[in-house]
Amino acid sequence: MALVQMQSRPAIDGPVRRTVVDVFDPAGPRVRDDMSVEVALSVMDAARTGRLVVCDQDDQGTGLVTRAELVAVRDGSAYSDRVCLRDILGVYAEVTSPATTVVGAGQAMRRLRSDTLPVVDEQNTASAALALSR
Residues 55, 57, 60, CA angle at the centre, nearest 5°? Predict the structure, then answer.
């Protein structure tokens, strides 16, 4: 799963309908779903990022976790050092496809009040994450 950074850029060649796939940036930490919460937080610190792309044993993207989610789990009463990322992967109420326009994806992110939106392929597997850059 790739992390996609969305940036506002003026259209040089006139009005062009860019899609999510046009702004893909393969950069971003990818981690296995059997990683513990504490190790994931350490990886985030080292990578200076607020989110991680989570993959299964076959390196297929299965989700996305944020620092806020991991901290909430770690600080929760049911936390133990055996909690893995696969145990806490959330179900996203809204996702987008690579064919979605950048404008449409941005509107969805504003509506959800989120700076990240998972991108799924035809099999509804997380293939990337669209993230607003700051």
Answer: 40
Is the whole-model pTM more than 0.70?
A: no
Helices (H), the chain: 37-47, 67-75, 85-88, 102-112
CB distance 99 to 19 below 8 Å? yes
Residue range 15-71, pLDDT digits in tens: 567 776 666 554 468 889 999 999 999 999 999 988 888 888 887 777 778 888 899
Residue type, 8: S
Burial class (CB in 10 A: 0-12, 13-18, 19+), 76: exposed
The strand order across the sheet containing 116-120 reads: 2-6, 126-132, 116-120
Straight-line distance from the first to the last Cα atom of the chain, in angstroms, rounded to the nearest whole number: 21
Between residues 44 and 116, which one has the greater pLDDT?
A: 44
Q: How is residue 123 written in tokens?
A: 């099999």
Cβ pair 116, 32 in contact under 8 A = no
